[in-house]
Amino acid sequence: WRRKSVCLFYLCDVFHILKLNKVIMKKILILASLVAMFTSCSKDEGDRKGDSIVDEWIPIKIVRAGVDTPIDNCNRQTKVIITNNHFTYYDYWKENQECKSSLEEYDYVTYKEDGRNMIKKFGANTSYYYALEDQGAHLRISNYLGNTYVILKRK
User: Fold this and answer.
1) What's the pLDDT tens digit per position in 79-117?
2) What's the rounded Cα separation, in Å, for the pair 88 and 126?
């Protein structure tokens, strides 16, 4: 009789441990799922980062004269291509339901004015303020007043 009760006691312990392991495994699985969900849904997923403005850039936010302009099929075509010495800005916007565009293309120099970075057409007065944001994942290009700007990400 005593031997049977000891075996039953050990058997109960084994079942208890297995049951406990199932609970622990469920909690670990839930925790791992939550971690995966929150880390995979970051806002800048896939955004490449860097400390140089040299790249091809596409818009994620456009503000014209202080008014936030939703990205649509027209202005989505906006892009900026910056090489080591050349600046190209393809700007698209809607005007009376018509998609309009302009192109600025020139060799440039960079410098600081009042602590702000500038990109300027070599030998002319055409210029923009620029700033790398979000650890270099985004580039903000703005006019002199700062009320018209575009935030771009690396293509």
Assistant:
1) 999 999 999 999 999 999 999 999 999 999 999 988 999
2) 13
